[in-house]
Write a structure and sequence with these properties.
By secondary structure, this protein is of the alpha+beta class. It contains twelve helices and 18 strands. The protein starts with a helix and ends in a 5-residue tail after the last strand. A hairpin with a 2-residue loop joins strand 5 and strand 6. Strands 5, 6, 8, 9, 12, 13, 14, 15, 16, 17 and 18 form an eleven-stranded antiparallel β-sheet that branches. Helix content is 33%, strand content 28%. The protein has two domains: 163 residues, 3-Layer(aba) Sandwich (Thermophilic metalloprotease-like); 175 residues, no CATH class. The longest helix has 16 residues.
């Protein structure tokens, strides 16, 4: 079953997400957990007539390097990496290591410095007009699966199957939603625990699983698999009201029975019928002035269920973020300028 699924996903990402052609160069970057599907991508790319190269990042070697690399060079990109991006037509990224394992083996400061290349990588990829795919299942490990109460294999398999969603259907729904998410529009989200209101202002994004010419022109040259959400930035001083969240995955576990209160855009209070030590730790690591609601996301993937690590992708989900973690509503109602877009979890 796994081999067949890997082959299907490899075919989907090469032929539909990236639309590779004979003679194109493809870089496949993988960590330990993604090696089996990376092999399938490379094999299929060669059958198509592409020229692939695989980069393997070993988790233990990476952690050792983060601990022992001189701080001046930790997290910097080398000229060989820039050269590889410039010479690649397409890029497949299967990330790792699992969520949470970093923080047990290296400090958050070390992790932050080790990943400071991120902006430079995306800038170089955009300059190269590269088409790229990131497979989210690579982030799954024992920590994340344990938070979700599932096995690593079950969560990874579910995410891979959701990568086979109908891209055209996702895009069609997403375009219609984005037409409503205009700058200055007023949004109201209702949940069991109250109502949250804010205004929209800023950039939009549609993750439909495909990188086309329009995406590359706008700098959105990396897409997710599985696909399936639209997002819109929020005017940072506009959020007011309170909202009760559904179970929401954080970097420290699942936040449950959590109510958030906002005023003048900032998160001012949070409460729960359960201990909030985990949420306290996360939110207090963010400066009070930066705990602002800044992004709205609406899920569009009808092949993905809740509780699989990608709740913001699930069709009908409503997600708010920008204050330290992503808060999820599973059966919320969202209206724009008084007209509903999501009604009790249905787009």
């Amino acid at each position: 079953m796994a081999g067949s699924l890997y082959s299907e996903v490899a075919s989907r990402l090469l032929n539909e997400s990236l639309r590779v052609k004979k003679g194109e160069t493809i870089t496949v970057e993988t960590w330990n957990s993604g090696l089996p599907i990376a092999r399938e991508v490379v094999k299929l790319a060669r059958r198509i007539g592409c020229i692939p190269i695989m980069i393997f990042e070993d988790e233990n070697t990476y952690v050792d390097g983060v601990r022992k690399t001189p701080r001046k060079v930790l997290g910097q990109m080398g000229k060989h990496e820039y050269g590889l991006l410039a010479a690649s037509d397409a890029y497949v990224f299967i990330p790792g290591p699992p969520l949470g394992s970093y923080y047990k083996r290296i400090t958050r400061e070390e992790y932050s410095k080790a990943t400071r290349y991120n902006d430079a990588w995306y800038a170089a990829a955009e300059k190269a007009h590269l088409r790229g795919v990131r497979l989210s299942f690579g982030y799954i490990g024992k920590d994340l699966a344990g938070y979700l109460g599932k096995s690593v294999r079950d969560v990874a398999t579910a995410q891979l199957r959701a990568s086979l969603a109908d891209f055209k259907r996702v895009r069609s729904k997403g375009v219609k939603v984005l037409e409503r998410l205009q700058d200055g529009a007023s949004v109201a989200i209702k949940s069991e625990g109250g109502e949250l209101r804010f205004r929209l202002k800023g950039e939009t994004e549609l993750e439909d699983g495909v990188v086309d010419a329009a995406d590359r022109a706008s700098g959105q040259n990396m897409t997710y698999l599985p696909p399936g959400f639209v997002s819109k930035e929020v005017e940072r001083t506009s959020a007011r009201g309170k909202i009760k969240l559904s179970p929401s995955l954080t970097r420290l576990g699942i936040a449950e029975d959590l109510t958030l209160e906002f005023d003048n855009g900032r998160l001012t209070n949070w409460s729960s019928g359960k201990p909030t030590r985990m949420v306290d730790e996360i939110l207090k690591s963010v400066e009070e002035s930066n705990r602002a609601l800044s992004l709205l996301t609406i899920g569009l993937n009808d092949k993905l269920g809740f509780g699989l690590g990608l709740d913001r992708f699930v069709e009908g989900s409503i997600a708010i973020s920008g204050f330290g973690f992503v808060g999820i509503l599973r059966r919320g109602t969202l209206a724009v300028d008084g007209s509903p877009i999501v009604a009790r979890g249905e787009v």
